[in-house]
């Protein structure tokens, strides 16, 4: 008999009234009469978790995203009951929960409304799969802006956009295309000079709507799982991003060479071609630290094998490349070729480590090797096995880094480009279907790869890069923005994507310089290099189907521009290394969109192009052909044009002339920028001077320089050097104060100090209150001096 019972309950369901509550430690449980439970957990005074269940109990609490090493604790927690609501108060915010329907609102301590539920939590039963489609909607305030969500190929400000999170192999994606490779369900809201964050920790396919469907409503929902989200209070965007990054974790420090320039192509082979490429870099004096081998280095695309026709002695080749300063990075994909004579396949088959369909057989899909099975990286035993596979590559052959690709996971010749949704996963003891595990598959592969590379690279530091990632992947891996296109539009996209990734916790990111698909013009490649050297990860990569993309593939002018900007990156390595240290120590993003840098200036809220590199360098790429300059916004404060040393007052949009071999780059007044001499690769030179570019400011400014042995783990034992630099400018005096922490002794003994923008003629110089003769410090009319590094205070006195 057919009835309409299943139809009676279709549509949205809502919590009913609260009938009881319990307060247990840092958590408060609110129970409704229709079995909905809201668990509110105060992790910090500014970090609150909201977790809902509709079945009267909670399933096991498990997350791949959360960094479990982080310690949480609040300073103050008070629960009070009013006539129509409960109020939870911390030392930072107040949260009101309505008794009638669990709708909540969050205020600061001055009763300013930060965030308010519209419909609040509601759900729809999923009759196709079981479980719920979980939903949340909130009011959007007048003028509210939204940022974050990882590598979305759209405007920095997400207001008016709807986005989808489902890790997808999107070859040659376009502007506004959804979804892409990474899933970072974290956004930042900003209104009335107050910032907050929402992290929706749900690995199912999720959606976010920022006032597209309904003008004043923002919403997010998932196709399964729990409504489980974290509220992060600022009020500064810096506070929100730092708290989120602490919550989901930070990487360890990479070896310094990883921050150099990398060259890649699909594919460099045979060995003679690889050496031709590396030799050309040295011949042209374009610095480069890493060369990549794509899938063609393998025997029939079988992971952990070598094509001996192309690479007859890989260990010897890798060693010879290393002698010339090149570190070898190889690709490893998740698809394991079905081949009974292939040792990796046989081991996984014997151990039953491959993913299975719901009715038993192994998941089978076509990738580069042909038909493949796929390891279940959500099983810790599989991850341990996978890590062990890197022994030969890393400890015996000498490979220095591993590149994980196709790990969304990508499958060819199927409509949805990935596994069927009925594939089963172990999920670290929480068995589930691919609907839940899909978005974290790439992260768990990268995690297993990281542990393997780290194990066999020791005592050196590991390097791993992944295409697909979920929140928290930054603990294990760097990333890039996937298969982009050699177009001016994609140069614009790359600029925004890397900024967005940086404030989404995944700072160690770059794009394929020049574009992966199609062929760039020389002008486009040059403009992309000029941007890419200011991204944390800096690599040219291209598809061999579309021609060559090495710097010498273009004319002499492009070669010279590439050399100039890559050399600049190598000069700035101590600045970049310091940026990375501050990222891992303090959760400070390495790239800062202007809205992050100065959220109180509403002119920054819709800026896409300009960004702060580190703390004190402003960069604005040229994004159009035939440009002789561009309009750009200079943030508030004083800024020096890097190329001309001309001083600009910020808080306004201006036209900046820019030649083909330049882009607008500015340095914050008062900054002290450390520089190394240009090296062809990290560690090539021994040098006895660190250059400090000191930019005058009438006022005070803090800078820093972090250094260590550039690899290895001694820095964790205190053998590092963290130099705090204080620049104090007065009308006729400049004071530089130094304070060093750490036990590492830098190999150089002197500082070469360049004084930029001094408004006075130097009359006298004192070091630690002792007057110094000009000839003893090589002081000249160009305002540079060379001093011993062991000083505390330097006075530059004018007449």
From TrEMBL:
Domain Glycoside hydrolase family 31 TIM barrel, chain residue ranges per copy: 251-579
Location of the DUF5110 domain: 689-757
Keyword set, alphabetical order: Glycosidase, Hydrolase
Protein origin, superkingdom: Bacteria
Molecular-function GO term, any one: hydrolase activity
Ranges of residues in domain Glycoside hydrolase family 31 N-terminal: 38-209
Domain Glycosyl hydrolase family 31 C-terminal as annotated: residue spans: 587-673
Protein family according to the UniProt entry: Belongs to the glycosyl hydrolase 31 family.
Entries under PANTHER family matching the protein: ALPHA-GLUCOSIDASE (PTHR22762), HETEROGLYCAN GLUCOSIDASE 1 (PTHR22762:SF120)
Protein name: Glycoside hydrolase family 31 protein
Native species: Flavobacterium tagetis
Organism classification: Bacteria, Pseudomonadati, Bacteroidota, Flavobacteriia, Flavobacteriales
């Amino acid at each position: 008999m057919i009835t309409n019972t299943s139809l009676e309950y279709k549509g949205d369901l809502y919590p009913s009234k609260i009938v009881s509550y319990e307060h247990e430690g840092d958590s408060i449980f609110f129970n409704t009469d229709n079995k909905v439970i809201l668990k509110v957990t105060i992790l910090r005074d500014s970090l609150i978790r909201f977790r809902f269940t509709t079945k009267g109990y909670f399933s096991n609490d498990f997350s791949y995203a959360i960094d479990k090493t982080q310690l949480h604790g609040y300073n103050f927690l008070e629960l009070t009951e009013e006539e129509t609501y409960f109020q939870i108060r911390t030392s930072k915010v107040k949260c009101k929960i309505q008794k009638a329907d669990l709708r909540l609102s969050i205020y600061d301590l001055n009763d300013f409304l930060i965030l308010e539920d519209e419909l609040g939590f509601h759900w729809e039963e999923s009759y196709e799969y079981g479980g719920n489609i979980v939903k949340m909607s909130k009011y959007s305030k007048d003028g509210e802006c939204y940022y974050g969500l990882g590598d979305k190929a759209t405007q920095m400000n997400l207001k008016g956009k709807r986005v989808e999170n489902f890790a997808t192999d999107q070859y040659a994606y376009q502007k506004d295309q959804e979804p892409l490779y990474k899933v970072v369900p974290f956004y930042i809201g900003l209104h009335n000079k107050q910032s907050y964050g929402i992290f929706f920790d749900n690995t199912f396919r999720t959606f976010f709507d920022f006032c597209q469907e309904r003008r004043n409503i923002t919403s997010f929902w998932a196709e399964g799982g729990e409504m489980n989200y974290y509220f992060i209070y600022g009020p500064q965007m810096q506070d929100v991003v730092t708290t989120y990054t602490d919550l989901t974790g930070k990487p360890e420090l990479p070896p310094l060479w990883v921050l150099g320039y990398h060259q890649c192509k699909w594919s460099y082979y045979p060995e003679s071609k690889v050496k031709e490429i590396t030799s050309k870099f040295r011949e042209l004096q374009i610095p480069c630290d890493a060369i990549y081998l794509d899938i063609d280095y393998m025997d029939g695309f079988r992971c952990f094998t070598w094509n001996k026709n192309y690479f007859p002695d890989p260990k010897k080749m890798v060693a010879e490349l290393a002698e010339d300063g090149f570190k070898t990075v190889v690709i490893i994909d998740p698809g394991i070729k079905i081949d009974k004579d292939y040792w990796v396949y046989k081991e996984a088959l014997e151990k039953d480590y491959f993913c299975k369909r719901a009715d038993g057989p192994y998941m089978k899909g076509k990738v580069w090797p042909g038909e493949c099975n796929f390891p279940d990286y959500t099983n810790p035993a599989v991850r341990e096995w996978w890590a062990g596979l890197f022994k030969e590559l890393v400890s015996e052959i000498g490979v220095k880094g591993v590149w994980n690709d196709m790990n969304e996971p990508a499958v060819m010749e199927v409509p949805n480009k990935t596994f069927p949704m009925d594939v089963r996963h172990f999920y670290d003891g929480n068995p589930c279907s691919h609907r839940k595990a899909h978005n974290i598959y790439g992260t768990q592969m990268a995690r297993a790869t990281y542990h393997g590379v780290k194990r066999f690279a020791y005592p050196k530091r590991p390097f791993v890069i992944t295409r697909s990632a979920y929140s928290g992947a930054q603990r294990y891996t760097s990333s890039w923005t996937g298969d982009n296109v050699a177009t001016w539009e994609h140069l614009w996209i790359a600029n925004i994507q890397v900024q967005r990734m940086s404030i989404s916790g995944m700072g160690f990111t770059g794009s394929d310089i020049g574009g992966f698909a199609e062929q760039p013009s020389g002008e486009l490649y040059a403009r992309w290099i000029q941007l890419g050297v200011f991204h944390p990860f800096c690599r040219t990569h291209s598809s061999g189907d579309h021609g060559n993309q090495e710097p010498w593939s273009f004319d002499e002018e492009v070669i010279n521009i590439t050399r100039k900007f890559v050399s600049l990156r190598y000069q700035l390595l101590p600045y970049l290394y310091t940026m990375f240290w501050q990222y891992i120590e303090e959760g400070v993003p390495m790239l800062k969109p202007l809205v992050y840098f100065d959220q109180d200036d509403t002119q920054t809220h819709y800026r896409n192009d300009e960004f702060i590199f580190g703390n004190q360098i402003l960069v604005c790429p040229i994004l159009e052909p035939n440009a002789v300059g561009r309009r750009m916004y200079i943030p508030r404060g004083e800024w020096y044009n890097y190329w001309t040393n001309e001083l600009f007052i910020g808080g306004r949009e201006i036209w900046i002339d820019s030649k083909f071999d330049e882009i607008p780059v500015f340095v914050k007044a008062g900054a002290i920028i450390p520089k190394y001499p240009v090296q062809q690769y990290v560690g090539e030179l021994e040098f006895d001077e660190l250059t400090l570019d000191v930019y005058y400011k009438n006022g005070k400014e803090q800078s820093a320089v972090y250094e260590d042995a550039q690899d290895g783990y001694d820095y964790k034992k205190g053998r590092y050097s963290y130099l705090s630099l204080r620049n104090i400018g007065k009308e006729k005096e400049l004071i530089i104060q130094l304070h060093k922490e750490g036990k590492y002794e830098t190999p150089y003994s002197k500082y070469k100090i360049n004084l930029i923008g001094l408004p006075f003629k130097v009359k006298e110089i004192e070091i630690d209150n002792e007057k110094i003769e000009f000839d003893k410090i090589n002081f000249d009319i160009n305002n540079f001096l060379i001093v011993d590094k062991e000083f505390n205070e330097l006075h530059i006195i004018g007449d």
